[in-house]
Write a structure and sequence with these properties.
Radius of gyration: 27 Å
Distance between the termini: 53 Å
Helix content: 55-70%
Strand content: under 5%
Order of helices and strands: EEHHEHHHHHHHHHHHHHEEHHH
Largest sheet: 3 strands, antiparallel
Number of helices: 18
Structural class: mainly alpha
Shape: globular
Number of strands: 5
Amino acid sequence: MNEQKAPPKRSYLVSSKPIRIRSHRHGTIKLRRLSVGTSGFLYTLVDLNLPAREFAVQLIHRYLISPELDLETIRAWPDRLLLRVELGWVQELSSIKDSLPDDKPTFDMLQRILVEYIAEQTQKLRDAIRVNLGHWIAPSNVLLSSIQSTMQNINQALIQSTMQNINQALADSVQSSMHSLIQQASQAFEESTSKLFQSAIDSFSESIRIVSQGIITTGLDQLNNLRPLLPTLSDLSAFAQLLEESRIVGEEFEASGYRFTAHLWDMAFVDSLIRVSPKVRKAALTNKVLAITRSQEFEQNLQELCVSLPLLRRRWKIVKLALEYHQRREYLASVPLLLAQVEGLFTDAMILYRMAAPKGRKLYARGSDDKLILNAKMKPIEVMTLRAKVDYAPKFKSHAVLKNVIDLFLDQLIAERNNILHGRRTAYGTAKLSNQLLLLIYVLANEITKFFQPTNSA
């Protein structure tokens, strides 16, 4: 009996389809959707506090796929076109499209909506980090309690005055640090998930250290009798432990082998991941991704990608069979099928980008001059293994998305592929590996589809 497909509780997957807006001036205007990998710019744009119309110009230019237009061209658009394109982009944000006001849209209104959206996302991230780090946003209460206990013999008025000053300083510090944390986190996501947490947490930790030292120094200069406070104020080991837990979140995401998918997820996925207890986070991450890859929505999105081009369509029958095994949790059957299609799609991409040339059943490496690369015997170099394909795919090593695919190949999949398909490894039927391979197919199919999309439809 076939196991029934599990319906997803929440889809965090950003659609691979661009936002399309028709215009008389430029034909179809295509825009990127907001995702974890593209969110940093929006955080920065909101912080610039630009006039509402210029805000729209910068937003559209940053997320524009085609046609290729410079800032001045977009700036010269009539208000009606600029407003319609900005509205079309804003309407695609999942948490906004159902709550847009009925009023006639204006530049000011759309800017305000996006500012409020960023504020909401920032607050969610604050709340998530607060929960995960044991409510570290209110450390001053703990310190003040220790101060009271230590300083029982000091004049009560002096204690109260000092406590208020320290409390305010710490509160200001945490607020400032949080702003820096959110801003750095949003920008760092565009590079890698591990750097997000590393940079942000280091910044916050350093801020706490500096402010704490400043409080101690000021207190000593003004109130030499408060010297007994030093051990309490300088003991930040609890902070260090909590900050280390947050650092681990980023490391675990990367270690789980999902870094190549950062551009696929919406911001709610980040929020849901940070909220998970560290004790079960690895399992929870796999389960969250599993719920998505077993969903009907994922199957529909993947099918649309695969049937959109003859090059991909020939693989859909095999991918669909593997997906059915995956949905039934029969990973021993899904993994070998998916491994073969991942390598096949990577090879297709190499041929499209003219890094390899097929001849009959063989594949030969191309150089940057578009000619076949010759070996010492002046014979074309045949590319037979996945490792060789990676070695002869230099364009992908600087590609925004495919460089992370190559990292996964080198760090994990090449060795696993050989051991599995050569029969040396038999305990390979895991949800995590099946998840990774399905998402790799999704990413590679999406990049191949983009290759055939016109870059300029003006």
